[in-house]
Hints:
- Two copies of one chain form a homodimer.
- By secondary structure, chain A is an alpha/beta fold.
- Chain A folds into two domains: 218 residues, Rossmann fold; 91 residues, Rossmann fold (3-Layer(aba) Sandwich).
- In chain A, 44% of the residues lie in helices and 15% in strands.
- Chain A has 13 helices and ten strands.
- In chain A, the strands form two sheets. A six-stranded mixed beta sheet of chain A has the order 1-2-10-7-8-9, sandwiched between helices. A four-stranded parallel beta sheet of chain A has the order 5-4-3-6, with helices on both faces.
- In chain A, helix 12 packs across helix 13.
- Chain A is globular.
- Chains A and B meet through helix 12 of A and helix 12 of B.
Amino acid sequence: MTSSTEYAVRLSDVEIARRRIDGLIHRTPVMHSRLFDERAGRSVFFKCENLQRVGAFKMRGAANAVMALDDAAAAKGVLTHSSGNHAQALALAARERGIAAHIVMPENAPAVKRRAVEAYGARVYPCAPTLCARETTARDVQTQTGAAFIHPYDRAEIIAGQGTCVMELLEEVPDLDAVIAPVGGGGLLSGTAIASRALRAATRVFGAEPAGADDAARSLAAGRLIPQEDPRTIADGLLTSLGILTWPIVRDHVEAILTVPDEATIAAMRLVMGRLKIVIEPSAAVAVAAVLDDAFPPPGQIARVGVVLSGGNVDLDHLPW
Amino acid sequence: MTSSTEYAVRLSDVEIARRRIDGLIHRTPVMHSRLFDERAGRSVFFKCENLQRVGAFKMRGAANAVMALDDAAAAKGVLTHSSGNHAQALALAARERGIAAHIVMPENAPAVKRRAVEAYGARVYPCAPTLCARETTARDVQTQTGAAFIHPYDRAEIIAGQGTCVMELLEEVPDLDAVIAPVGGGGLLSGTAIASRALRAATRVFGAEPAGADDAARSLAAGRLIPQEDPRTIADGLLTSLGILTWPIVRDHVEAILTVPDEATIAAMRLVMGRLKIVIEPSAAVAVAAVLDDAFPPPGQIARVGVVLSGGNVDLDHLPW
């Protein structure tokens, strides 16, 4: 499981992140449901990042990245291209530091997402809905402003920030046989792996991925980074490919990536909302579905599992069932 | 605000209930949202009984009533007629004590509610969907079994059990200017009023009621108990009238009952699910809507308010927006 590779992040980076973002993020609750346990045939502990600020774990990494900037860099503001939770998180983190946030967003992004980012005081730059247009526009904004570009996952401070989540989980429930987190770009999963392996080596680390966007599972099987092309899933937070920094960590410290079809994700989302009475987004439900899947190691091997519920930002007008 | 009347419940009964149900109920979290506060113009603290066992505060009163029975009475089981949260709570409380639960339920109750009660090991007795048929069937079951009838709200142990909720809330957030709870039969509101007035007299106590089932508001205005006829509201937990035991407490210890139209309830439910990422049922949203209403005392008078989110049992296939 180990390798001589130098990884982007070590446990000490996660510990520094934790101190840096203290007071800027919520210590989210860990939920546990006897009814859910009966269904799963084991004890399941849910780390509720859907109850995090901006409704997703992304606030951890964004806060760490923004607070890590030196004053001269920070004064020029921060920049990203995203229409998702990272955009809101970066906007809020920038507001907390009192600096500008510039968010490049495809012009077909839902108006509600644009308004959410603007409500945090960020400036939105609409662009054509292609990766090329996003990158070109971001480069233009950077040229004009000098703002620091904060990648949504492939950046050391982001990975370290996301790793603080499992650190809290393991403090509250130390004797977990396994933890599982969803994987898109791999910021959350790689941070989880680094912190979890270092803090409690006996805890097995799994990723969960939509079957229709399974680049991490295929990469792990092939032993090389395979980018995602044409992802098809309702888990809109997990469309991206692993990155240069996240891939080596996932490769060396994650035991397996479990893939689940969207139908199982939808059923898991409904189950959590119905039983735990909390709102989760499809990307979070992917990890829940993986634990309920027959491919997950049996309760005899894994009696106690921690699941990172990554976020709760879902369109309540269009629930997927 | 006080009266020489002897009430069904005193603070000491709530304290006894608390010790009696310890370990049988969850100490539910108190949630707080900066975004919600901005919207409300004041600090709002949500006591999350939607995260209680069986998804509602009803577990508190049912557990207290079941555990208060002496062994001889308990051995004959417990009985109620209900299709709602009280039925599930009584079934679970009986299972915890290892005794039988008999639940009379209208034959047109949703199959999911019947299955939920049966999943806790209770026996369900279907009857015609009239109050008369429910009472006749319940009497028959009682004749056959000798089971103790546990009224859903008009019983001292039920009121005392529900009062434990605000006790926890005031421990966690002592300096509340007001608390508000929804009112149907008045078990929750009267328990809240008894405990809150005794523990912190400076905290004002309000009830919240659907405009289409406003018997408590009309009773308080008239100074006499006016039963609810033909209730029309989506808040299906608040259709009932105040009872013989709950009415005097509400009359003497609740400052005002605020009524809200269903549209405001639906908007509040959506707001809580969207912002706090927790699932609440319409009956809980009634109290949220009341705090957001212009009729609620201004922030200058009430800067910090506690809201009891009474439950989270909602049909996710038919959300009311």
